[in-house]
């Protein structure tokens, strides 16, 4: 069987083999370049550079940072410039090359970012220093404006439980905040004997709930129940403590006293919300007699309280004649 084998044309016989690579840039085809068979990556880079030189967009490119994406791999001109590209024959590659303007903008953005970060760091450092200073001052205030001693009633059972109760009052966030704000310093926080501070008559029974001696020398609180078999409600006792702290400033139960007393109560309750408790204080609140008028019950309670004060003063002759500055009472 005969075959027709036509001789190659002189042009085909004299054409050297080439590497054909199609290059796109920015989503658009740039050109298909015909490079010598032994071409390297730098040859393709030079071809692209020549093609873009004098382009209508008049952009100046930073060719040292050029790179090609070919067959899922990144080929950087600065690292792979001498590598052969014959394996890329008849393939499409993507050219990525930044303009000089892009580089300048990037440097400016980086410098701006460093400046912003420096400002943030400086602000954070200043805030940390301020916070540390405020914390140190607060610690100093906590050490000064507080109860210097806490003691349970001697000679009674559950002394440690009473001490824990008193310490809880001392460390109560609201009490601490109020004492810092009003600069209250109390020498002793202790409990009172229920039996010694209860008066009964045909009119009823009056219980002294708290007592402030010499405007902050000592504050006594009625912690235990009348039968000594338990302890009274914490928030009720805390309200009594607010009442007694107000006696650090005012002795008589006048308008000024009740205004301060209610202010301290509100401040203590506000700290409950800030500390996450989200509770409303239960128990007694000391209502100003000037708000509702003095009832017969109030008058009897006041008289009983005065008798109890005189009794306390008589039992404690070392008080220097000052006696108790104030107290809170309850008449069932």
Automatic annotation (TrEMBL):
GO molecular function, one term: proteasome binding
InterPro entries, per database record: WLM_dom (IPR013536)
Domain WLM: start-end pairs: 138-309
Superkingdom assignment: Eukaryota
One Pfam short name: WLM
Region entry Disordered, spans: 107-144, 283-332
Sequence ranges of Basic and acidic residues compositional bias: 293-314
Name listed for the protein in its UniProt record: WLM domain-containing protein
Taxonomic placement: Eukaryota, Fungi, Dikarya, Ascomycota, Pezizomycotina
């Amino acid at each position: 069987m005969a075959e027709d084998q036509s001789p190659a044309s002189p042009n085909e016989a004299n054409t050297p083999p080439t590497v054909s690579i199609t290059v796109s840039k920015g989503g658009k085809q740039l050109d298909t370049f015909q490079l010598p068979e032994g071409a390297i990556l730098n040859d393709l880079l030079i071809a692209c550079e020549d093609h873009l030189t004098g382009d209508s967009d008049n952009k100046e490119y930073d060719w040292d940072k050029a790179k090609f994406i070919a067959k899922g791999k990144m080929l950087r001109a600065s690292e792979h410039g001498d590598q052969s590209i014959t394996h890329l024959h008849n393939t499409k590659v993507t050219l990525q090359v930044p303009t000089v303007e892009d580089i300048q903008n990037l440097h400016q953005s980086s410098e701006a970012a460093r400046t912003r970060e420096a400002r943030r760091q400086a602000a954070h450092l200043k805030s940390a220093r301020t916070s540390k200073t405020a914390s140190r001052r607060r610690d100093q205030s906590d050490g000064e404006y507080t109860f210097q001693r806490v003691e349970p009633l001697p000679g009674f059972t559950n002394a440690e439980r009473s001490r824990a109760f008193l310490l809880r009052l001392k460390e109560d966030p609201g009490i601490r905040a109020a004492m810092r704000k009003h600069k209250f310093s109390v020498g002793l926080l202790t409990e009172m004997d229920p039996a010694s501070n209860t008066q009964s008559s045909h009119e009823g029974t009056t219980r002294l709930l708290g007592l402030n001696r010499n405007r902050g020398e000592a504050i006594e609180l009625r912690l235990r129940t009348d039968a000594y078999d338990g302890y009274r409600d914490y928030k009720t006792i805390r309200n009594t403590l607010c009442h007694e702290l107000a006696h650090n400033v005012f002795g008589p139960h006048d308008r000024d006293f009740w205004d301060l007393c209610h202010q301290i109560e509100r401040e203590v309750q506000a700290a409950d919300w800030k500390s996450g408790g989200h509770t409303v204080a239960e128990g007694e609140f000391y209502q100003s007699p000037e708000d509702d008028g003095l009832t017969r019950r109030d008058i009897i309670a006041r008289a009983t309280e005065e008798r109890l004060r005189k009794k306390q003063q008589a039992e404690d002759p070392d008080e220097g004649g000052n006696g108790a500055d104030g107290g809170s009472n309850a008449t069932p």
